[in-house]
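Morning!

This is the sequence you dropped in the shared folder:
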Amino acid sequence: MNSRISSICSWLALLLASAIAPAFLGTYGQGVLLQLFGWVALTASWVAFSGMTGYISLGHAVFYGMGGYIMALLWMQLPILLVLPLAALAAAAFALVVGLPALRVRGPYFVILTFGLAEFFKFVVISIESALGVNGRLLLGAPDVIWLSYGMLVLAVLAVGLVFVLKHSRLGMALWAVREDETAAMTLGVPTTWVKLLAFVLSAMVPAMVGALTVLRSTYFEPMQMFNPMTSFTIVTMAIIGGSDRPAGPVLGAAFIMLLSELLWSRAPEFYMVLLGVLLLGFVLFAPDGIVGKLDMRRRRAAKGQS
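The structure's back. Tokens below.
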């Protein structure tokens, strides 16, 4: 009981600090927070599907880019607060259509399939833009970065909240059963296809809204940038380092990688990528439960020592 109260207080303190911080930071600091909140939202949405089911998806970049594209197309035509849910619904519809056939395959085949779908959609958008004679879209009059950072904070809270709800729901139990042994889950009557599809659709909605806000921050839409596969790889890295099946995992993983990026990317980008690869291998081999798992293990040892 005490640990639960402590956990709730920690989350509330983090939320309060995140809400207050943008008001006391300059434009650069607000931009960093916007990126951090965005990565937390993206990683948590990935955890809501892949972390829960064990189906490793490299397709989040397509939902992210789709949201940015919809915002670029509808900019100055519809209010932002209307475009965001439209982007989420479009991503959900796309996930529903591609999820039905895609979720029939497992393991590395699913990984390759999701990566291929993301690349396919990227080149479809590039072809459409080329046919229209458009070489990038400029978004003038975007909101100030402080308002975008608050919007991204809301998305981060929604995504982490989704992971928390799934972890403590019947749907989450069904997804856990799929991850542990899908065949056994089917034998026990779990509608595995539909629970996977529902989680896949839910996990697609937040990235679309993140992409929509991100393109407002950059004030420019360019398909190669918005549909960059590195987005998906970075999400997976953050999830693994933070802890791919815990609500706190996306927060810690995103914060860790963002800190590493701020310290090394501008000074030694080549070393940064090498170090990132080494860290990923190290966590996969020696800390598969991520930072959260290590912290939980240390907490349990401390509790045993006190008893």
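Headline: The chain has a mean pLDDT of 88.

More detail when I'm at my desk.
O.
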